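Hi support team,

I submitted a single chain yesterday and got back a structure, but I'm not sure I'm reading the token output correctly. Could someone confirm the output below corresponds to the sequence I sent? I've pasted both exactly as they appear in my results page.

Thanks,
R.
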Amino acid sequence: MARYVLASQSPRRKQLLEWAEVDFEIIVVPTDETYPEGLSPEEVAVHIAAQKALAVRGKSGKTIIAADTIVVLGNEIIGKPKDRDDAVSILKKLSGQHHKVITGVVINNGEKEVGFADVTDVEFHLLTNEQLEFYVDKYKPYDKAGAYAIQEWIGVVGIKRIGGDFYNVMGLPVSRVVQALKDF
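Hi R., thanks for writing in. Yes, this is the structure output for that exact sequence:
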């Protein structure tokens, strides 16, 4: 019997928890990812994670781990691209720029809830249109906030530097989650 429930269909979050040898199963319930006006980006990520945890709460009595990752450029929250053109457009905005990757995490056992946001600063090299189109056409990053995955080609050749947790950019600050589970 799994000890925890991961409220996410992200293969990257699944992989990270497996690497950490956390005993879990996956339960996903479609969740509204809108948020109230006036929240900081960190609060937005935690709010959406809390909505995911709440949606799964009725399906399991186990401790739930829910997460949501957003990308923030300046004051703009960048979600998942709608299509190819949107993905290329998003990556053009990020090219040569610093941005933040924020993952909100909520751990909930029905009696207690802990939420936090982890922030990683990312800087891209200036990339050509050909590089961006190659990446989008080959890797199809339509299910990724900011239209990229750091562990794919674009992360290897396009990221100049990061400040913070690499795994947070993949979608889960796994070491912080494991510490929170110990304290929970």
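A quick pointer for reading it: Residues 41-57 form the longest helix (17 residues). Let us know if anything else looks off.

Best,
Support desk
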